């Protein structure tokens, strides 16, 4: 197994992809809207990925947040609300919001598990800041760290009840960035005291099974390297102050916040301390570059991966999707 999570190009594996994935044996895969048509097609695709890997616990990831970030969409799957809906309810009725968030996340998990997907890149623990770029915006769970952590915990619990692993993101916090890391490198010049607010939700949820780094430069911690490429930030902040010991993946290597070849980007995030490197586009030439930069996954990273996947219950709670959505909607009516 290699320390890579890779995307794929379309709705079914090509022969070239099948041969490449057998040879490289990535730690997992990630799916996007381009890979999704309908329930029958999607389940066939995830089954084929498990067949190639030979692992029943193969991590198959997706970004299914709700709102504007949803790879599985109507008419075949229900729409889910953005984080802002639950943040608004929390300000009025915190316990009601937590219960609504848990039901919502469990509903997402039931939907994903039926499709053969077992990891959701959710929840966002980015603390929303006024005036920051809207790339986080209504995806956030609030402006207050305690609120973000409470709703984030409910999300992780709901996903686990439905049989899916959650990924907290974007550690150590993307909420105060003034640009979109998909487009360029955000630079955060805030002092360390201000950054304490950003890492607070991650500290409170430091026992999460997986986390994703932020391609953001924090000058107070490392003036030259963004978090994903910074041994200082990963060692001293993420593994140190936050005390996160789960599986740490980079954000997508294809984002324009990063520079250099894909081999250099891959080697860079792994050298900095990420357990696995994430590459999303499904572009074969790029994936070949990523694969050229890695050897077998390290023992500690493999143990973290196994431990994260073991948090999925063998027989998850039997709640029905429609019932969970009805429960969530009834609770959200208090907003």
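Sequence proposed for the structure above (335 residues):
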């Amino acid at each position: 197994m290699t320390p890579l999570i890779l995307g794929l190009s379309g709705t079914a594996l090509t022969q070239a992809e099948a041969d490449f994935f057998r040879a490289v044996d990535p730690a997992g895969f990630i799916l996007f809207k381009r890979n999704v048509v309908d329930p029958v097609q999607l389940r066939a695709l995830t089954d084929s990925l498990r067949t190639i890997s030979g692992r029943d616990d193969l991590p198959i990831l997706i970004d299914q947040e709700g709102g504007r970030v949803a790879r599985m969409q109507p008419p075949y799957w229900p729409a889910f609300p953005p984080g802002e809906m639950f943040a608004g309810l929390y300000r009025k009725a915190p316990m009601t919001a937590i219960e609504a968030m848990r039901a919502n996340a469990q509903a997402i998990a039931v939907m994903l598990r039926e499709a053969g997907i077992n990891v959701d890149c959710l929840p966002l623990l980015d603390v929303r800041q006024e005036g920051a770029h809207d790339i986080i915006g209504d995806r956030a769970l609030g402006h207050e760290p305690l609120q973000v952590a409470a709703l984030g915990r409910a999300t992780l619990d709901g996903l686990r009840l439905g049989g899916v692993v959650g990924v907290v993101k974007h550690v150590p916090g993307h909420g105060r960035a003034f640009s979109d890391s998909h487009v360029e490198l955000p630079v955060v010049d805030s002092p360390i005291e201000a950054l304490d607010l950003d890492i607070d939700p991650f500290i409170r949820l430091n026992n999460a099974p997986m986390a994703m780094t932020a391609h953001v430069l924090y000058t107070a911690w490392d003036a030259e390297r963004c978090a994903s490429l910074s041994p200082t930030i990963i060692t001293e902040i993420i593994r140190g102050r936050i005390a996160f010991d789960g599986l740490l993946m980079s954000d997508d290597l294809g984002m324009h916040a990063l520079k250099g070849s894909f081999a250099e980007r891959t080697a860079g995030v792994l050298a900095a301390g990420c357990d696995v490197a994430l590459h999303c586009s499904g572009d074969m030439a790029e994936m070949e570059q990523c694969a050229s930069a890695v050897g077998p996954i390290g023992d500690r990273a493999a143990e973290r991966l196994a431990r994260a996947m073991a948090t999925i219950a063998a027989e998850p709670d039997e709640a029905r999707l429609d019932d969970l959505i009805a429960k969530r909607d009834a609770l959200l009516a208090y907003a």
